[in-house]
Write a structure and sequence with these properties.
Hexokinase, domain 1; alpha/beta; 5-stranded mixed sheet; 6-stranded mixed sheet; globular; single chain; disordered N terminus
């Protein structure tokens, strides 16, 4: 049994705190966290609603540049006085590299780079040890903050793992921005886990440590896939013939859902097409593929939660979970999450929440940019 050391702060499971991965701020008390969440969770400006002359800044105030850079899309935003004043969703496929995408964003928003005083880019891929560059896992892009500073006249931006930012963004979630799948029996001093399936499969752990929160980015999506039944064993064989080593990300991701649908015998459809048809036809191949996908997702989340004993709470932060809210609570996700043999009782005591804030990554990047 893990016993937290004396003197750790009390903390509620629904509000994993944030700060720098190596030097986080002290977690607030439960009452302070509620106050903080209410203050930070004011509805964001609608996407694409640039305010007049935002690049100049009212009263000459400076800007922070924040981003959530994924394999398929990028979210970029500008903040003043600790709040987002605009955001843009941009398709990565329209650009050859991140530098071109950023140039388009600055031009589109008429932002003067000289007024940007700092910022943070949350990236779906590993960060170099020196923090100066990052390579996206599912896109052949490398983001070099030194090169961006030289080209645009920007300060050197901070780089962070996208799921580290998502974990911090969860601190701003109100009850209206969260769906609880399992109430559990939360422990105030236990770790929290953030997982999320999208183009890839990400994860991060948030630890209360020495009076602070510490965020540990991880690559759990690249752990080997463990089939739970004969059908999943057949899926493993199908994927092994294609890829060799089969990771959880090959199954629990947008491309994974497409692959499962093909395995079942369906045509090659996009994840969006499969999800839509699955909800319209409960007996079709798309629904069978979605059921298999959600069972695998639950098994993965439960395995990762068991590995770090995430009694503080498990947060699903990827885009797929939020889009599947109509079917997720009644799916096999929870049963697979809790199917942990002799440790099933421990899994059942872990709270599980779906984060529904569409700007979760940007809010987390903003928090990192300010600390």
């Amino acid at each position: 049994m893990n016993v937290p050391p004396p003197g750790r702060p009390k903390a509620g499971p629904s509000f994993p705190g944030g700060g720098k991965a190596d030097e986080p701020p002290s977690p607030p008390s439960l009452g302070q966290r509620r106050e903080f969440a209410e203050h930070r969770s004011a509805p964001p400006e609608p996407a694409g609603c640039a305010k007049p002359a935002v690049g100049q800044g009212p009263g000459g105030r400076h800007l922070l540049l924040v981003g959530d850079i994924g394999g398929t899309k990028s979210l970029l935003g500008l903040a003043q006085d600790g709040k987002l004043v605009l955001d843009r969703r941009i398709a990565n496929a329209d650009f050859s590299d991140f530098s071109s995408l950023l140039a388009s964003f600055l031009a589109d928003t008429q932002t003067d780079p000289a007024l940007i005083t700092g910022g943070c880019l949350a990236v779906a891929g590993p960060i170099a040890d020196d923090g100066g560059s990052a390579t996206l896992t599912n896109l052949p892009w490398t983001i070099d903050v030194g090169a961006l500073a030289r080209r645009f006249g920007l300060p050197v931006l901070r780089l962070a793992n996208d799921f580290a930012a998502a974990a911090l963004g969860a601190v701003a979630a109100t009850s209206a921005q969260r769906l609880t799948l399992q109430a559990g029996e939360p422990l105030a001093t236990a770790p929290c886990l953030v997982v999320g399936a999208g183009t890839g499969l990400g994860m991060a752990i948030v630890l209360p440590q020495g009076g602070h929160w510490r965020v540990l980015a991880g690559e759990g999506g690249h752990v080997a896939f463990a089939p739970a039944d004969e059908q999943q064993m057949a899926l493993w064989t199908f994927l092994h013939a294609r890829h060799g080593r089969v990771t959880w990300e090959r199954v629990v991701s947008g491309p994974g859902l497409t692959a499962i649908h093909e395995f079942i015998g369906g045509a090659r459809l996009s994840p969006e097409q499969i999800a839509t048809q699955a909800q319209n036809d409960p007996a079709g191949a798309e629904r069978r593929a979605l059921d298999m996908f959600l069972a695998a997702y639950g098994a993965f989340a439960g395995d990762m939660a068991l590995a770090c004993l995430a009694r503080g709470g498990v947060f699903l932060a990827g885009g797929i979970a939020a889009k599947l809210l109509p079917v997720l609570p009644q799916s096999g996700f929870l049963a697979a999450f809790n199917a942990k043999a002799e440790h099933a009782a421990i899994a059942a005591r872990m709270p599980i929440h779906v984060a529904t804030d569409p700007l979760l990554g940007l809010h987390g990047a903003l928090h990192l940019a300010r600390t």
